Amino acid sequence: MKKTLYLMRHGQTLFNERKKIQGFCDAPLTKLGIKQAEIAGSYFKEHNIEFDKAYSSTSERASDTLELVTKTAYTRLKGLKEWNFGTFEGESEDLNPALPYGDFFAAFGGEREKDFQKRIVETIASIMSQEEHEVILVVSHGAACAQFARYWEDTSKLGKISGLKNGCILKFEYEKSIFSLVNFINHDFENGTHMEAAESPNN
Fold this sequence. Notes:
This protein is an alpha/beta fold. It has helices spanning 14-17, 31-46, 60-69, 113-128, 142-151; strands spanning 3-9, 53-57, 74-77, 135-140, 169-175, 178-188, 193-196.
């Protein structure tokens, strides 16, 4: 049976606004972040999308976002948390190394990139393999969404994606333990509209 996963990034936080490194540490949503979550939520309402289950990272920026998107009861999972950046948490983004980060943060008490990606992939796969999980919302983080999409890049109907802005939504189809990215939604927060990058029907 084909299932659907909507993987979403949380709204803007105070640390996003202040350009602070934010992984395991947390910061509250800004007024803009609240607006972003509400506009992202409107996408689901406009398309009459209802969720069987919903999940969020244990970070409040993710759970607060989810509560603005849907009234569906949800479960918080540590496996959906952002990359652990070790002693770089809360520091200026100017201190980040050049991409890709690889194992850089592991030397400072953080996670290796492959360990982080494995955690995210296994957590989401565990969610989607459960019964009565046909349409699922997961609210997580920027690097978490990017690492999940990168892991499943070979099966993506959209190819490689970039620009995972606050409040963005990645739609995956899940069948026979395989995830395929079929839509990527960002938003125009000034006008309250949505920009989709769905697979062309001619592909």
